[in-house]
Amino acid sequence: MTAALAAPPPEPDAQEGGWFADVFAAAWNGLSDVLPGGNLTMLGILFALGAWADQASKRKKADGPAKPRTPGSWKTPFITLYKAIRSLVMFVWALIRFYGGRELRGPARSTATVWAAGTRIRKDDDQAVALGSVAFAPPRISLIKQPRRAPSLWARKVAVWFKTYRGRGARWLDRATRAVLWAARVTGKGWRAGRTTARTLRNWGCWPYAARALVRVAVTALVVFAVAPAWEVWALLVAVLATAALGALLPKMVPTEPGDDVVYGPKLWVVLRDDLKLPNDEPRENWLQLPARLADETARIVLRLPWTYRGSDMEKESITALMNSRLPGDWVGRFSFRGEHATAVYTHKPPPRPQAPAPEPPAAVNIWDPKVQEILASLGPDDFYLGQDTFDRPIIQKMADEQNSWALSIGSGGGKSAFLQWLAVQMLMKRGTIVVIDPKMVSLTPLIGIEGVHDYINPRAPLDMRASLEWVEEVLNARNFEKKIGRRTSFPPLYVFLEETNHLADILKEQHSADKKTGESAADPVWRDVASILRLGREVNVHIIAVFQDLKDNQFGGVSLSPLFPLKILGSFSERQWKRIMGTQAEMPPIQKKAGRMVLALDTGDITRIQTPYAPWNPELTKDQNQQEAYRLLTAYYKELRATHGYTTEALYQAPPEPSVEQPPAFILAQSRDAAPEGRNGGLEGVTEGETAGRASHDDAHVTLSGAHVTPARDRLRLIPGQGQQGGQEAAQDPTAPPELLTLAEISRRLGPADGVPKYDTLRANKTRRDDFPQPTIINGKELFTESQIKAYYAAQEKKA
């Protein structure tokens, strides 16, 4: 028994498993000795081979049933061996692709190479690209780097306070601020690092092949380290080495933004391909080349053109418009049809060359400057000095011939009043008569009271303004008649200022609508008189200077006044006003909202920019004080000029109509003296509120209660005319004296509903429309009535009713 156990085992029978079993056993034992891991590695290989064989069988089933083979064929072992070897080769190739960084299935999904990262390759879809190029084209952006926005004012103030604070707790505040700033910086860096890491991992398909291979090697080594204790040292060493090598490729793994050629190229090519009539399968790279950065100064877009492209101006403009509408920036193309290939090369549009600043008129022209006074002294009879031009030269314009009358369209703050006052200075030097019609009441205030200046500045008396214009027309007709018969050939100047002409037209139209009789035209006839003056005034030295806020002919009763002013002076205007007034006759100059900065525009298209003279202001005084000082100096200057140069009434024939006495507005007339001393209906001291002085008077000549203590000044303020005067009392009205003639406005002010007399508007309407209205007495062109006439007329009307 012992000998039997000690004897070696018998040799296995070679015929028991066959020669295939012997070869398999020899291969198994040889590979297990050579390969690390021994039997474990061999089992893994067998498992992989089985998996590949299973997939191959599934593919065969999908392709269709295999042809039946004859059992027991001599080809069967070779086919099995071929499949095994093929599966082994495919497995090795898969390992090579896996650890070479390639995609395991399908083609490459990016343009990456072994050592360089790439961008994703998107499947070309003509329809989607076409839609993207038209409907979803990226918005045009400026390629010029925008300046960094400065911190807001409050942020700068807080920063300055933190830096300069030296009070209690400043040290702890400084430490806390530093800690907050450090935490903010660390948080920002961590956030940016995490965001970059996430973008890098998400961009796995664009990594270089070497980076992907190292990551797979490191992961495999860690798996082997975890499951195979015998290979722990080697697996850990491989993982460390692979990770270290991966660090060198880390910068290339960070994703980069796709270039402009990738973003814009496919979308632009779809449209260009149709415009150039190229086949759909033509590759873009052969026809269109875009730079990676369109913002580069040297960026060039090269477009190859087909031989059939004719290159007409319309076709060139079409392609250029397409480039500028789809690509950021402004591009200009240079087309070349010589050589082997016709091309269009687009480059950035060069920035405009800096132009020298246009000359400007002087900032100010002082009317008291000796040079200005010297120019005034040298002016001719028809010359007017208007100001200095862009070359600081004096501009002198004749108010005669075609430019006999001027139109001014000057907005608020443009220096209109100062310019009119400057023209009045020169009119007084020419011994001219000046008629001022100004419903605004303030522009020519310094001229009030000057000899030879007739002011009609009460907007509540439109009849006075109408009468003055009718008087000017009568003077014009008389002068033309004298010139026609040869009695007189020269006339002294007559100047008419129409200030705020648009507002004046509204006032006169309202008055004409109230006064016109049945059947009369609604158009105000006074503007036909104005048009007549504009047409015929140059022959007899009659001029109109009309000032408009808005020169529109639809306000003047259908009379077109704009063509009758060949010279227009504009200031502080808008683009809309310039186009309406000047049309396309002249190019609009730069708009400048500056006092005294004006433009002389002729109908011929000549444009001259000037700075008009005006009195300088004292910066130490307020605006109102400066205005009062300027008015005082101008009034004194006007009187001096009139005294120096004289004044003549020659060829006026009759005095102009006297303006009616201006009455205070109704609010001032109705104001109680208890509220202000200007009122007229206050009660007396010691008298019940509401009683008048007349009702409270007694003791014959006394108007206050007996023993009442009233100061003489206050007693005088509360007296009704004709009462309470002892010495020096006005004499009673003579009963034999003729009745006083008054205007309807004055009668309406004196009488009221208590006397049976309606308001002024009703009086004026009744006078125009009723034939039985009392006949007026006309003196100097004014219609005057007596109080008894009006009272008797309305008393009779009341009885009839």
Report on the architecture of this protein.
With about 800 residues, the protein is α/β, with parallel strands linked by helices. Helices cover about 45% and strands about 10% of the residues. It contains 24 helices and 16 strands. Strands 9-8-10-11-7-12-13-14 form an eight-stranded mixed sheet, sandwiched between helices. Strands 1-2-4-3 form a four-stranded antiparallel sheet. Strands 5-6 form a two-stranded antiparallel ribbon. The protein is elongated. The termini are far apart.
Note the main sheet: 8 strands, mixed
Q: How far is the first residue's CA from the last residue's CA?
A: 169 Å
Beta fraction? 5-15%
Question: Can you list the strand order of the major beta sheet?
Answer: 9-8-10-11-7-12-13-14
Whole-angstrom Rg: 53 Å
Number of helices: 24
Helical residue percent band: 40-55%
Short description:
By secondary structure, the protein is an alpha/beta fold.
Name the features.
801 residues; alpha/beta; 8-stranded mixed β-sheet; 4-stranded antiparallel β-sheet; 24 helices; 16 strands
Helix and strand arrangement:
Layout: H1 2-6, H2 14-34, H3 39-63, H4 76-99, H5 126-134, H6 153-164, H7 170-202, H8 209-227, H9 232-253, H10 260-275, E1 288-289, E2 301-305, H11 313-326, E3 331-336, E4 342-348, H12 370-377, E5 383-388, E6 394-398, E7 406-410, H13 416-429, E8 433-437, E9 453-456, H14 462-485, E10 494-498, H15 501-515, H16 526-536, E11 542-548, E12 567-571, H17 575-582, E13 597-602, E14 607-611, H18 623-645, H19 666-669, H20 693-696, H21 712-717, H22 744-750, H23 760-769, E15 777-779, E16 782-784, H24 787-800
Helix pairs in contact: 3-4, 5-10, 8-9, 10-11, 13-18, 14-15, 14-16
